[in-house]
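Here is an idea for our session: we take a single protein and study its fold together. To get us started, please write out a protein record for me. Start from the sequence, derive the C-alpha coordinates from it, and show both lines together. Go ahead whenever you are ready, and we will take it from there:
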Amino acid sequence: MGALEAIVAIRRIGIVPAVRVPNADYARRAVAAIVEGSISVVEIPVTVPDVYKIIPELKERYAGKILIGAGTVIDAEAAERSIDAGAQFIVSPCLNLDVIAYCKQRDVAILPGALTPTEIVIAWKAGADCIKVFPVSAMGGVDYFKALRAPLPEVPLMPMGGVNIENAARYIQAGALAVGVGSDLVDVTSLSQNCDDALIRKAITYVTRIQEARQDLSLQPHHHDKQQETGL
Protein backbone atom coordinates (compact mmCIF):
# COMPACT_ATOMS: atom_id res chain seq x y z
CA MET A 1 0.00 0.00 0.00
CA GLY A 2 1.36 3.37 -1.03
CA ALA A 3 1.00 6.77 0.61
CA LEU A 4 -2.09 7.80 -1.34
CA GLU A 5 -3.96 4.59 -0.55
CA ALA A 6 -3.16 4.99 3.14
CA ILE A 7 -4.50 8.55 3.24
CA VAL A 8 -7.67 7.44 1.44
CA ALA A 9 -8.13 4.72 4.07
CA ILE A 10 -7.57 7.18 6.92
CA ARG A 11 -10.04 9.63 5.48
CA ARG A 12 -12.60 6.88 4.90
CA ILE A 13 -12.77 5.92 8.59
CA GLY A 14 -12.08 9.47 9.84
CA ILE A 15 -10.25 8.55 13.04
CA VAL A 16 -6.70 7.58 13.96
CA PRO A 17 -6.51 6.06 17.46
CA ALA A 18 -3.11 6.36 19.09
CA VAL A 19 -2.46 3.27 21.21
CA ARG A 20 -0.23 4.90 23.81
CA VAL A 21 0.00 2.16 26.43
CA PRO A 22 2.69 0.94 28.86
CA ASN A 23 3.12 -2.62 27.59
CA ALA A 24 2.68 -4.95 24.63
CA ASP A 25 -0.25 -6.85 26.14
CA TYR A 26 -2.27 -3.65 26.51
CA ALA A 27 -1.39 -2.75 22.93
CA ARG A 28 -2.68 -6.07 21.59
CA ARG A 29 -5.89 -5.84 23.60
CA ALA A 30 -6.47 -2.20 22.65
CA VAL A 31 -6.07 -2.98 18.96
CA ALA A 32 -8.43 -5.95 19.27
CA ALA A 33 -11.04 -3.67 20.86
CA ILE A 34 -10.53 -0.98 18.22
CA VAL A 35 -11.04 -3.51 15.43
CA GLU A 36 -14.11 -4.92 17.19
CA GLY A 37 -15.40 -1.38 17.39
CA SER A 38 -15.27 -1.03 13.59
CA ILE A 39 -12.21 1.24 13.38
CA SER A 40 -9.86 0.11 10.63
CA VAL A 41 -6.86 2.35 11.38
CA VAL A 42 -4.51 2.27 14.35
CA GLU A 43 -1.32 4.10 15.33
CA ILE A 44 1.21 2.42 17.60
CA PRO A 45 3.63 4.95 19.15
CA VAL A 46 7.25 3.88 18.99
CA THR A 47 7.43 4.55 22.74
CA VAL A 48 5.41 1.38 23.37
CA PRO A 49 7.72 -1.43 24.58
CA ASP A 50 8.59 -3.97 21.86
CA VAL A 51 6.88 -1.80 19.24
CA TYR A 52 8.99 -3.16 16.38
CA LYS A 53 7.81 -6.68 17.25
CA ILE A 54 4.20 -5.63 17.81
CA ILE A 55 3.74 -3.88 14.46
CA PRO A 56 4.56 -6.91 12.26
CA GLU A 57 2.63 -9.19 14.60
CA LEU A 58 -0.50 -7.05 14.38
CA LYS A 59 -0.08 -6.56 10.65
CA GLU A 60 -0.09 -10.32 10.13
CA ARG A 61 -2.96 -10.96 12.55
CA TYR A 62 -5.22 -8.33 11.01
CA ALA A 63 -4.03 -8.60 7.41
CA GLY A 64 -6.41 -6.75 5.12
CA LYS A 65 -8.54 -5.56 8.04
CA ILE A 66 -6.64 -2.59 9.45
CA LEU A 67 -4.09 0.01 8.47
CA ILE A 68 -1.22 0.06 10.97
CA GLY A 69 0.95 3.12 11.48
CA ALA A 70 3.76 4.13 13.80
CA GLY A 71 3.51 7.27 15.91
CA THR A 72 5.78 9.55 17.93
CA VAL A 73 8.35 9.23 15.14
CA ILE A 74 10.72 12.16 15.59
CA ASP A 75 13.65 11.28 13.32
CA ALA A 76 14.43 9.46 10.08
CA GLU A 77 16.02 6.54 11.92
CA ALA A 78 12.78 5.80 13.77
CA ALA A 79 10.86 6.19 10.52
CA GLU A 80 13.14 3.66 8.83
CA ARG A 81 12.80 1.12 11.65
CA SER A 82 9.02 1.58 11.73
CA ILE A 83 8.58 1.15 7.98
CA ASP A 84 10.92 -1.84 7.92
CA ALA A 85 8.74 -3.36 10.68
CA GLY A 86 5.68 -2.91 8.48
CA ALA A 87 4.23 0.49 9.39
CA GLN A 88 1.93 1.71 6.61
CA PHE A 89 1.93 5.33 7.70
CA ILE A 90 4.04 7.51 9.98
CA VAL A 91 2.82 10.10 12.50
CA SER A 92 5.04 12.60 14.26
CA PRO A 93 4.43 15.09 17.08
CA CYS A 94 6.77 17.56 15.41
CA LEU A 95 8.00 18.84 12.07
CA ASN A 96 11.17 17.13 10.88
CA LEU A 97 11.85 17.60 7.18
CA ASP A 98 14.18 14.59 7.13
CA VAL A 99 11.32 12.35 8.24
CA ILE A 100 9.07 13.72 5.48
CA ALA A 101 11.79 13.21 2.86
CA TYR A 102 12.46 9.65 3.99
CA CYS A 103 8.78 8.69 3.95
CA LYS A 104 8.37 10.22 0.50
CA GLN A 105 11.31 8.13 -0.67
CA ARG A 106 9.62 4.97 0.67
CA ASP A 107 6.14 5.99 -0.60
CA VAL A 108 4.74 5.78 2.93
CA ALA A 109 2.18 8.32 4.14
CA ILE A 110 3.62 10.89 6.53
CA LEU A 111 1.55 12.94 8.98
CA PRO A 112 3.98 15.34 10.67
CA GLY A 113 3.01 17.44 13.64
CA ALA A 114 2.69 21.20 13.23
CA LEU A 115 0.86 23.92 15.09
CA THR A 116 1.26 27.30 13.43
CA PRO A 117 0.27 28.33 9.89
CA THR A 118 3.96 28.69 9.02
CA GLU A 119 4.81 25.16 10.21
CA ILE A 120 1.79 23.72 8.42
CA VAL A 121 2.69 25.33 5.10
CA ILE A 122 6.34 24.26 5.41
CA ALA A 123 5.21 20.67 6.06
CA TRP A 124 2.77 20.75 3.15
CA LYS A 125 5.31 22.20 0.72
CA ALA A 126 7.82 19.54 1.84
CA GLY A 127 5.41 16.81 0.75
CA ALA A 128 3.45 15.84 3.87
CA ASP A 129 0.34 13.83 3.07
CA CYS A 130 -1.65 15.27 5.97
CA ILE A 131 -0.58 17.53 8.82
CA LYS A 132 -1.34 16.63 12.43
CA VAL A 133 -2.32 19.86 14.18
CA PHE A 134 -0.89 19.21 17.63
CA PRO A 135 -1.61 20.01 20.40
CA VAL A 136 -4.73 21.68 19.05
CA SER A 137 -6.54 22.01 22.39
CA ALA A 138 -3.74 24.15 23.82
CA MET A 139 -4.39 26.76 21.13
CA GLY A 140 -8.16 26.94 21.46
CA GLY A 141 -9.44 23.64 20.08
CA VAL A 142 -12.11 23.73 17.38
CA ASP A 143 -12.04 27.52 17.09
CA TYR A 144 -8.31 27.48 16.42
CA PHE A 145 -8.73 24.66 13.92
CA LYS A 146 -11.39 26.63 12.04
CA ALA A 147 -9.09 29.66 11.98
CA LEU A 148 -6.36 27.52 10.37
CA ARG A 149 -8.70 25.95 7.84
CA ALA A 150 -9.96 29.27 6.50
CA PRO A 151 -6.74 30.39 4.72
CA LEU A 152 -5.50 26.81 4.13
CA PRO A 153 -8.53 24.94 2.74
CA GLU A 154 -6.42 22.80 0.40
CA VAL A 155 -4.19 21.37 3.16
CA PRO A 156 -5.39 18.08 4.72
CA LEU A 157 -5.38 18.51 8.49
CA MET A 158 -5.84 16.10 11.39
CA PRO A 159 -6.38 17.68 14.81
CA MET A 160 -4.95 15.89 17.83
CA GLY A 161 -4.46 16.72 21.48
CA GLY A 162 -7.65 17.09 23.46
CA VAL A 163 -9.88 15.53 20.80
CA ASN A 164 -12.65 13.58 22.52
CA ILE A 165 -16.05 12.02 21.97
CA GLU A 166 -17.76 15.37 22.64
CA ASN A 167 -15.86 17.47 20.10
CA ALA A 168 -14.75 14.98 17.41
CA ALA A 169 -17.79 15.67 15.21
CA ARG A 170 -17.16 19.42 15.37
CA TYR A 171 -13.64 18.93 14.01
CA ILE A 172 -14.99 16.81 11.16
CA GLN A 173 -17.59 19.46 10.37
CA ALA A 174 -14.81 22.07 10.45
CA GLY A 175 -13.05 20.21 7.65
CA ALA A 176 -10.70 17.73 9.32
CA LEU A 177 -9.57 14.87 7.10
CA ALA A 178 -9.68 12.73 10.25
CA VAL A 179 -9.29 13.18 13.99
CA GLY A 180 -6.42 11.83 16.04
CA VAL A 181 -7.59 10.41 19.35
CA GLY A 182 -5.55 9.23 22.30
CA SER A 183 -6.53 8.44 25.86
CA ASP A 184 -10.19 9.34 25.43
CA LEU A 185 -10.52 6.14 23.39
CA VAL A 186 -7.52 4.05 24.42
CA ASP A 187 -8.09 4.35 28.15
CA VAL A 188 -5.31 2.66 30.11
CA THR A 189 -7.47 2.51 33.24
CA SER A 190 -10.10 0.47 31.41
CA LEU A 191 -7.41 -1.87 30.13
CA SER A 192 -5.91 -2.25 33.60
CA GLN A 193 -9.35 -3.21 34.94
CA ASN A 194 -9.97 -5.63 32.05
CA CYS A 195 -12.83 -3.47 30.83
CA ASP A 196 -11.99 -3.92 27.15
CA ASP A 197 -15.69 -3.73 26.30
CA ALA A 198 -15.59 -0.06 27.27
CA LEU A 199 -13.07 0.57 24.47
CA ILE A 200 -15.25 -1.30 21.99
CA ARG A 201 -18.31 0.77 22.90
CA LYS A 202 -16.35 4.03 22.72
CA ALA A 203 -14.90 3.07 19.31
CA ILE A 204 -18.38 2.37 17.94
CA THR A 205 -19.61 5.71 19.28
CA TYR A 206 -16.71 7.56 17.62
CA VAL A 207 -17.41 5.93 14.26
CA THR A 208 -21.10 6.73 14.51
CA ARG A 209 -20.55 10.37 15.40
CA ILE A 210 -18.00 10.88 12.63
CA GLN A 211 -20.34 9.31 10.08
CA GLU A 212 -23.22 11.49 11.27
CA ALA A 213 -21.04 14.62 11.13
CA ARG A 214 -20.05 13.86 7.55
CA GLN A 215 -23.65 13.22 6.59
CA ASP A 216 -24.68 16.55 8.09
CA LEU A 217 -21.80 18.24 6.27
CA SER A 218 -22.82 16.76 2.93
CA LEU A 219 -26.33 18.13 3.37
CA GLN A 220 -25.14 21.68 3.98
CA PRO A 221 -25.22 24.06 0.99
CA HIS A 222 -21.78 25.09 -0.25
CA HIS A 223 -20.79 28.44 1.15
CA HIS A 224 -17.78 30.56 2.05
CA ASP A 225 -17.58 31.68 5.63
CA LYS A 226 -16.65 35.19 6.63
CA GLN A 227 -13.08 34.26 7.36
CA GLN A 228 -12.58 32.99 3.82
CA GLU A 229 -14.25 36.08 2.35
CA THR A 230 -11.95 38.37 4.25
CA GLY A 231 -8.88 36.24 3.57
CA LEU A 232 -8.09 35.79 7.26
Summary: The first helix runs from residue 3 to 13. The two ends are 37 Å apart (CA to CA).
